[in-house]
Amino acid sequence: MSHANPATLSLALRTWPRIAGMPLPAFALLCAALLCAIYTDNLPAGMIGGLLVMMVLGELLGFIGDRLPIVRSYLGGGAILTIFGAAALMYFPVMPAHVGETITQFMQGGDFLNFYIAALITGSILGMDSNSLVTIGSRYFAPIMGAVIGAALLAALVGSLAGFTISDAVLVITLPILGGGMGAGAVPMSQVYEQMLGQPASYYISLLVPALALGNVFAIVFASLLAKLGDRFPTLSGNGQIMPGVKLDEREQNLELSALGVGVMLALGFYIGGQLLAELVPLHPYALMIVIVALFKIFGLVPQTLADAATQWYGFVARNWTFALLFGIGVAYTDLGTVIEALTPAYVLIVLAVVAGAALGAALLGKLVGFYPIESAITAGLCMANMGGTGDVAVLSAARRMQLMPFAQISSRLGGALILLISGLGLPLLFG
Length: 432
What we know:
Blueprint: H1 6-14, E1 18-19, E2 22-23, H2 24-39, H3 46-65, H4 69-74, H5 78-91, H6 97-109, H7 112-126, H8 130-137, H9 141-161, H10 166-178, H11 181-197, H12 201-232, H13 257-278, H14 285-298, H15 304-332, H16 336-341, H17 345-368, H18 373-382, H19 388-399, H20 405-431
Antiparallel strand pairs: 1-2
Helix pairs in contact: 2-3, 3-5, 3-6, 3-15, 5-15, 5-19, 6-15, 7-13, 7-14, 7-15, 9-10, 9-17, 9-18, 10-12, 10-17, 10-20, 11-12, 11-19, 11-20, 12-17, 12-18, 12-19, 13-14, 13-15, 15-19, 17-18, 18-20, 19-20
């Protein structure tokens, strides 16, 4: 009776395609065990079940999406297939409801989204050169304003051609899309509308949500297309660098396992700092966290060993959990029914105009202040037009520019606060 030669087996496994770093047979075995647990109602609750489903099915959908010709080239690749594949599994429903509840609890109650974004913000900022950080940050408000102006003008133009009033095109569609997502944008905006326009906030939420959902889809698709445009015309893009002559490259360092634990603590510590400061300053904790981390970096308050640890943790999280997070976003934050209901031709055209106008305005004003148009359009434009933190991850993943997360968060959070201010001031002028 012959026995398999371990060396031969190892060589055979190396020739198989790899998913999530695993040879296909090993990944298929893991996937089969997971599906068996799901459909026999033996999936553990909490983090174990939720994270395993998100990682395995997220990596599978990401692998497929990055290899489907049209999806890969024009629709955001693995990022968009992972989000909407997960949403479709819950909508039809293929996935049992209790699995969706486990993932939603892990994403929202377990705060996995904030855990992920805290790592990216801390690691990417502390990995930057402090002079580069000052140079970029001092100019970044210009492309954000370009995004707002471009989105409002193009939406008003298309809306008037499609039979919408300018106020409806701007207030009901444009501002919610640019407002930083549900929690930081649509919800407080609906309360502003309730006070100014008289209908209950729930009525305005029902109008705002389709705009957010559809705008998020277009932002992801545009991110992929802009990345392709940058490949075709290299002079328009910094290939992940936001400004000529200013590099965001990470310092070369040796991986240390102990550093990952330090990186976790630093990321969560800065996140808590943003939460505490938000009790005193009326801004989103993400925005305040960015300010705190940037100040620590600019004034040299973080030793290089700690900055390296934060950067290594950021790299680990981005490499291993991005598709998992995108799958969780599809389950917990993406209502496929809402997106489908919004697909009337006129509505779709206006949302498309908002996203295109934001990208174009950010690219033009970004170019004026010295940024690469592609990176400016993605961060200051598309990350204003998506659904906040979840959209930032999806957009930057589709554009293959995850290192730009701090600027994406500035757009989502400070830009979202700017939109709330505009809506609060603009409504009395229009309807007062």
